[in-house]
Design a protein that fits this description.
Elements: H1 2-26, E1 48-50, E2 56-58, H2 63-83, H3 92-113, H4 120-144, H5 151-172, H6 180-189, H7 191-222
Antiparallel strand pairs: 1-2
Helix pairs in contact: 1-2, 1-7, 2-3, 3-4, 4-5, 5-6
């Protein structure tokens, strides 16, 4: 039961984030761009020209809603990391991976509590937790997942984390490879969310399928 709550927490957290993201960006008078704008721009409290890391005008009328979404997302990521025990092996690697993924949740919550144009240093710390700590956790998760998870998926998890860490380095060095500042930031920040969404869905629906198969096998044996 606890694991199901954890899986649902991951799914609900990520889904509400993308829904609110779409609502908040649609409220911009000057169109919001996934390539030119940071994710954090949606939560900025004031309308102003931002100089760093790239020149852009930011004005997010629904910034309060976005910041609440960040906090909800972060909270549910932590809940999921704490409760999805059956997804993981026993041992240090899995434990560290879960702690680091929970750190990404704390980073999202901190980003919501400290908008970039109000509490810059705290917001930067939140971003580091998401794109640094969280992505390292994703790399370790590949080795920490339960043996019930197929090996190709475990390898894909680590590869996704490595890709995100590489993108984070490119983002910090301002090498955007044609994706734009916002595009490269998303390659660094979104993999952990997409992975938790997929892991939550597999945990819920994969377990349900396994129980049906086991029940069918028992019925055939009894017959």
């Amino acid at each position: 039961m606890k694991a199901r709550i954890g899986y649902w927490a991951w799914i609900a957290g990520v889904v509400q984030f993308f829904v609110i993201h779409g609502i908040v960006e649609s409220a911009w008078a000057r169109p919001y761009s996934w390539a030119r704008n940071n994710i954090s721009d949606l939560g900025n409290a004031h309308c102003a020209v931002q100089q760093e890391p790239e020149l852009r005008y930011v004005c997010s009328p629904e910034h309060g809603l976005m910041n609440v979404s960040f906090i909800v997302l972060g909270t549910l990521l932590v809940v999921g990391a704490a409760l999805t025990g059956p997804l993981w092996r026993r041992g240090v690697t899995a434990a560290v991976a879960r702690v680091l993924l929970a750190g990404a949740g704390l980073g999202f919550a901190l980003a919501g509590l400290a908008p970039a144009d109000v509490h810059e240093n705290q917001h930067i710390l939140g971003a580091l937790l998401i794109m640094g700590t969280g992505n390292i956790g994703l790399v370790l998760a590949g080795a920490g997942l339960s043996n019930d998870v197929p090996r190709p998926l475990r390898w894909a998890t680590s590869l996704l984390g490595i890709t995100a860490i590489t993108a984070f380095g490119l983002f910090l060095s301002r090498h955007y490879l044609g994706l734009g500042m916002g595009g490269m930031e998303r390659v660094a920040a979104l993999p952990v969310l997409l992975w938790t969404l997929a892991a939550g869905a597999r945990g819920l629906f994969g377990q349900a399928a396994h129980r049906r198969d086991a029940s069918s096998s028992m019925t055939l044996m009894a017959g």
